[in-house]
Amino acid sequence: MPTAKKKTLKSSVSIPVKNETVSEMKVSGPTPGHPVGCKCLSCTIRSGGFLKGKGFTPILIALLVIAVFFIGILVDRVMYLQSQNSGTYQAGNQAQPTTAGPQEGQKVNVSVGHLPALGNKNAKVKIVEFADLRCPFCDQFYKGAEQSLINDYVKPGKVAFYFRHYAFLGPSSIVAANAAECANEQGKFWDMHNYLYENQPDESDTSMYNVTDLTNIAGQLGMNTTQFQTCLSSNKYQKNVDADLADGQKAGVNGTPTFFINGQMLVGALPYTSIKTAVDCALNNNSFSVNSSTGDVTCNK
Predict the structure, then answer these.
(1) What separation, in Å, do the N-terminal and C-terminal C-alpha atoms of the chain show?
(2) I need a surface site. Which of 56, 79, 133, 218 has the fewest CB within 10 A?
(3) Per-residue confidence at 294, pLDDT binned at 50, 70, 90?
(4) Which domains does the chain have, with CATH numbers?
């Protein structure tokens, strides 16, 4: 069996490697202009210092691992910024429509669904929101623009606000949607809706979305816990959750939150000024347009 033997050659580096041909690298001593014995990086490489000893391979591996780690952070950051810019949450190919839907600003025939309206159901303007109760951008809208919308338009009776499920972020989203449905059975839909957004954990934390914890929450909100537990554990209203998702797909929803203001689509956790402009357009019997680059909303007069 052939084995490699260590050779001693002047101004050369030889590395003993079993069962492989030895490759010798010619070196030329210190870098020109550097003193003999210089320990700088250039002279170390030229003298073969990085190739001597057993520490070279572990150091190289460690450097590669560190490089991969930082590349991963960079990629993750880019993806996060892209989602921040869009203001909508999209999860890969989950629950995406199979055909191209209407564009933002286009009018769509979409129903208000089966859940109770917030505000006067006979209001001139009806807003239908498709959202996931675990979606961080939906939570952002709830804690920001939605509160201003309710105070300025819903409470005065100018707008009726409706919620429809677009539960596409995994099993915990479906559990949360079912919990809201079971709360609706006891006339507490908006109470559960508000609680789940006000107490929404990080997306990676799904520990709250189980029958036991949600039943305890239902009790805190004044519901009959036995009735609620039976409802949730049996997925009694799963058909409603599925129907909302299917209607959203047909209407062209591919991210949350998505709104339909008197049928016109508006996408994302937009600033209140954009929502307000769209609502004012509808109140004045005008449609609105959305600038695809800036997201700005303007009335069509």
Answers:
(1) 89
(2) 79
(3) confident
(4) 27-86 (no CATH), 125-300 (3.40.30.10)
Asked which of 3-17, 80-94, 164-178 is least confident by mean pLDDT, the reply is 3-17
What interhelical angle do 171-185 and 211-220 show, nearest 10?
Answer: 30
Query: Long-range contacts: 143-151, Cβ < 8 Å, 24+?
Result: 143/197, 143/198, 144/269, 144/272, 145/269, 145/270, 145/271, 145/272, 145/275, 148/272, 148/276, 149/272, 149/275, 149/276, 149/279, 150/118, 150/119
Q: Tell whether the model's pLDDT for residue 192 goes beyond 70.
A: yes
Tokens at residue 53, please? 């000893």
Distances in whole angstroms, Cα of residue 54 to Cα of each of 50, 156, 166: 10, 77, 57
- Tell me the residue ranges of DSSP E strands in the chain: 12-13, 25-26, 125-131, 159-165, 258-261, 264-267, 287-290, 297-300
pLDDT tens-place string over residues 52-70: 545 556 677 767 767 665 6
Q: Are 261 and 279 in contact (CB under 8 A)?
A: yes
Which residues touch 134 (CB under 8 Å, ≥6 apart)?
169, 170, 172, 173, 176, 196, 200, 203, 209
Q: Is the dihedral of CA 181, 182, 183, 187 positive or negative?
A: positive
Average model confidence (pLDDT) across the chain: 80
Q: How far, in Å, CA of 128 to CA of 183, rounded?
A: 20
Contacts of 67 (CB under 8 A, 6+ apart): none
pLDDT tens-digit series, residues 71-102: 655 544 444 444 444 466 664 433 333 345 56
CA distance 257 to 89: 7
Interatomic CA distance for residues 108 and 120, integer angstroms? 22
